[in-house]
Fold each of these.
Amino acid sequence: MSHISPVFRRFVPQLLHVIVLPFFYFAFMLIYRPFGAISFFGAEWYGVHVTIIASIILICTVMTRSLYYFLPMKLNYALYIFWCLGEIIFMSFFTALYIWLVLKKPLQYFEVLAVSFQYVFLSLVIAYSLLALSLRLYEYHSNVLEVPDASVQRMRFYDEKHNLKLVLLRQALLYICAEINYVSIFYLDNDKVKTYVLRSSMKALDELCQEHGLVRCHRSFYVNPSHIKVLRKDKDGIVYAEMDAEDVRHIPVSKKFYDRLAEMLY
């Protein structure tokens, strides 16, 4: 299963979850009052309890969404569903603790937890579904104008915080070079070679590069084979790829990647 879209890892979707989830719980419990919620919480202070629990969900969501935003995780859609379920369980633990301590129900904590999970899950599963559908629709409309021709495909580069930093036509890109904590992206703009320094890693760009036909030629380099003019070996036996753009360095080609690159060129 493919990795989840980078859209889900940006800051704005996390902020939407922080706002929408507690508000949706509050509105759902206040309007629909499902499964005897009035009798469970008590009619007199029902609105107060729902407000406090919505605040607990807000705090829990801030914690889990901050973790999701900052941790360098690669999730597919199935694992993302498990992550959301884990968030609901996490919220349920704290809402159950509030109910157990404040309402002093004649029930064991884990019995209260089961009821709390029922209310949180049934209310928030709708909100999670709407948010996920909205992000998928946004992704679809963002990519709907993409043309399948490789020469006009756009490459979207995100930094380590999943913020979009650079969009290039695949044909404009020359090569990518790894630095210590950054990568340098070399590309053509009006026939002039330009460089963009991105805070990311080569490993984070692997999937993007392979998807757009870039080839790894060295531990620290990805190269666009359509811009390679010739592979040349120097007097020390080191192979370099000469590019068709002026004032561009020769790219080293290691033995590990030479055969594959040579097959693509000849």
Amino acid sequence: MEFDDNARLDASQVSDQRGRRGPGLAIGGGGLGIVGLVLALILGVNPADLTGGSGGTDSTVQTASDLADRCTTGADANRDLDCRMVGVANSVQAYWGQALEKYENAETVLFTGSTDTGCGAATADSGPFYCPSDDQVYLDLGFFDELRTKFGAQGGTFAQAYVIAHEYGHHVQDLLGKDCQGTATGASSCSVRLELQADCYAGVWANHAVDTGFVTALTKADVADGLDAAAAVGDDRIQSEFQGRVNSDSWTHGSSAQRQKWFTTGLRTGTPSRCDTFSGSI
């Protein structure tokens, strides 16, 4: 995925808190949360049940890089991962800003180690997630390496964009009042339907990415990377890898095939209303 070299980036949509640390573990209102997801699948509980944590460690706050100085154009996004996160956030929010009348921008927070959030303390083990309490997306960029090295995804710039777009899909759900009551798990659970809808919303943005003016083109190879990343975080694939067996009763995010199906639905139609994962079978 290539950004328009001349596109103007708005770094104010991304906060760099790397070097700041907080205690415990939090899993927010939806996200990929690989390590937390693995734990939940093995223990047979909803990731939300793992929210919280106690204790803490003192740390020295390091001076974070100034994104506003380094990330000003699409050319910066093409050569720098930090700036790419800015470019993706800009593009995703540019789309939803015109597609959803009540849309309000959300901030992406980059952190390392651990950080405090409106959903409690979070660590890198949480994986990327959206916190509805403070309307922010949280991301340790090391997740992208783990997605490739530990979970077998091919990686690539669009795989990274898919992850961010998925989390902003949860922000859209929050603005629309879409949420799950309780902590039930299973192949047809509300949690799975919520996650699949976020995948579909990510696909909808991908359909319109070029229209936002930030992205120049979306290739077949880009789409393949996105589908590959979606498959890598399927509940069945993770269970098979870490447990050697699949138990759909503990699913919280959906199977690899389901995640690919709904991302493709959003990509093909480009229409948010086609992302109704709450009606009928999924």
Amino acid sequence: MIDQFGRRIEYARISVTDRCNLRCRYCMPECGVEKIPHDEILTFEEILRVVKIFARLGIKKIRLTGGEPLLRKNLPALIRDIKNISGVEIVTMTTNGVLIEKFAADLIAAGIDGVNISVDTLDEKIFSSLTRRKFFANVLRGLKILLSYGKNIKLNCVPLRGVNEDDVLKLVELARENFIDLRFIELMPIGCAIDSKLEGIPTAEIFSLIESHCGKLYPAEKKFLQGPAEYFRAENFIGRIGFIDALEHKFCGTCNRIRLTAEGFLKPCLNFGIGLDVKNLLRSGVDDEKIFTAIERTIYYKPREHFFNLKNNLCDERKMYQVGG
């Protein structure tokens, strides 16, 4: 559908759980978090009901997120059922990669179209320090398995000053040698990212570093229903290098996405707390047409742009793990 500013909204990110098996310093406190009671999280049946409404509104791409989505029991079955919904053309997932080795075959069998893996470092010690867990080998094994299937793979890296600068060029070599999209994502000022005192590295600095190592980066073609990343290729690269810099260069004018939290709150913009309590509608006994109208109105009034640098009473107080990565 088209929102009030003429943007075509075709992409929904759906969190299936707030739980995670890592404790990344920019996402969760070391002690963990108070978990949402299971009966407060949308059931698979409720998620499918919402996705059918999304599809009627023109949503073509669904990305499942968390927390860590593979902690949700029977996730491949949900992927299969979403793939069978008329109008949905792409179903993908964002994961930390820890459980990929265990579930890769089931995900492929379910028909998943692509997987995003968060990989901030290729150094085991830095991984353990940043995530507060010792699962580095699991992530590497999972990545190798997915590469063997030849699926659409994206690697997400958040460059952090004094933490993983040395990994930038190591990760770039993966894009040189493999059919992957490597994306460098600017640290977002949300929740623990602020409290941790971590400092993100500006996209322009990362871009220059890569060009000094690999030569000129040339704009790469956009794929169907792609998100906000701007992609580039260097000479003799198999994969692409992408940059998501929501703060330096707002992409709000072309934003095509909405988010549904694990507890059923529809967020038209990551920055703002405004939205729609879809779970309440689902469990109040109203029919699909009333839910359709409420969701349509919420998407239509999607804010023009974010204001992460201007804190006000409209900003969402949720942490990233509560919203969906």
Amino acid sequence: MSWAVILGASMGTGAAVARAVSDRPGLDVFGMHRGRHPEGAASVVRDVEARGRRCVMHEGEAGTFEAAQQGARALLAAAGPRSVKLFVHSLANASLGRLASNDREQFVPAQFAKTFDSMAHSFVYWVQELVALDLLAPGAQLLGLSNPLVDSLVRNGALITATKAALEVYVRHLAYELGPKGHRVNLLKFGGVVTTASTTTFSAETGPDLDTVLPRITPAGRMVTLDEVARFVSVLAGDDAAWFNGATIDFTGGQTQSLFDALMYPTR
């Protein structure tokens, strides 16, 4: 049986992807979560199992080197070798602040380390472990997640945008390294959705109403839904998308950032 490994599986995008890929292409799910939303994790387990698939939720911090080692060993025990068809990195654990404000908002070194480990470096840590333990199935898809904010100057979001830029570089290099083995490594860049993480980010300063702002900067006049993102991930997990590799896949619906930036940085 083939498995999907989803980091950050109890809420938001990760939970939606778990449900979608258990339905199509029909993958068992191994989810990592930090235990802050046990009801969300339990709901995912029920929904995946209702589709006739196995679901293992492993509680723990997924965004460090040690966590990747421990999680991969738990995955091996649950799924066995050469079982992972899809790996999705859906972690949000960023610090908000400024780079050189010389006040309480200025980042300190520990915030750099935590944010980059969780939202960028851990993608590599997990791929290293999946390869070392021979967990990847033939033609595995390894997927990072990004958003249009990487091209913007959202107030207090410097570390978020920096980690997404680093993740894009990691994806390209890993695609080149793993391509000869038949695996694919991509970055899915999708339009803004309202999640716990996005609400926290955008309420830190000016607090625009995302339900109002995002439709205004998207040609379709609405936000993408988590279900739409998740269903597209299920497409990427299939053989028809096998030629995507080393790509930043634009799933933003044409979303622009000019209005967003104006709202988030009304003054300097």
